[in-house]
Amino acid sequence: MTTSRDLLRQSTVLLSAILALAGSFIGSGAAGGTPIQNASGGALAADATPIAPGGPAFAIWTPIYAGLVLYAIWQFLPKQKTDPRQRRLGYPIAASLLLNAAWILSVQFDLLWLSVPVIALLLAVLVWAFLIILDTRPETLVETVLVDGTIGLYLGWVCVATAANITAALVAAGFDGFGLAADVWGVAIIAVAGLIGVLLAVVGRGRLAPTLALCWGLAWVAVARLTGDLLSTPTAITAIVAVVVVVAVTLVLRIRAPRRLNVAVSVDK
């Protein structure tokens, strides 16, 4: 039965999507704002830190935003109003949209230090949504692509963005890396990002979307370190290795998943 709470949830998601979309226009510079790579004194530019991804990496926001806006519309369909899965996912997705807009505003107002807790909270909310997705099942292919696919891309990319954001904030604050070379920090942080990618693959049982987004970001880190103004061959090689490992683990898990399912069915019989 549809309740007023369902309408409130749906309306909250739609309004959050509108605000996030407005924020994306500001962040792109299309609505008078400063492009993200130039905001906060260029702290998030492709050559600002050893783990900053190349500019084209941010094109991934196009499918993410498209998926989120389409979800905001789709979840208003009559069948989704009382769907238990959407009831659980609605507010986490709305929270992620609002946090995304808040992050853009913090960077636009040169509050780079504030962007760190905001993006950390965004990451936590996306992990929450991802766990809900893992705990439930989509009913249609459309839902699989629109919900599972979009949240997976969103989570994978924000993992990379969080690492880049924290590094940028530390560099902007004058952190000297305890005297260690920038290459050492670059290799270490990218290695951690790769381990997170492996963890997502294992927890997600080989889901492709998080892997695609995370590896997309790492691949553009490699490109930027090999061809940009801030060169770092060790960081680039580490990023390439991380991409290969995360993709390999994801594919192995996807191949083994149907076999485990068949074994379980056989045991039940």
Automatic annotation (TrEMBL):
InterPro entries: TspO/MBR-related_sf. Gene3D superfamilies: TspO/MBR protein. Keywords: Membrane, Transmembrane, Transmembrane helix. The chain crosses the membrane at residues 55-77, 89-106, 112-134, 146-172, 184-204, 211-228, 234-253. It comes from the Bacteria. PANTHER family: SI:CH211-161H7.5-RELATED (PTHR33802), XK-RELATED PROTEIN (PTHR33802:SF1). This is Tryptophan-rich sensory protein. It comes from Cryobacterium adonitolivorans.
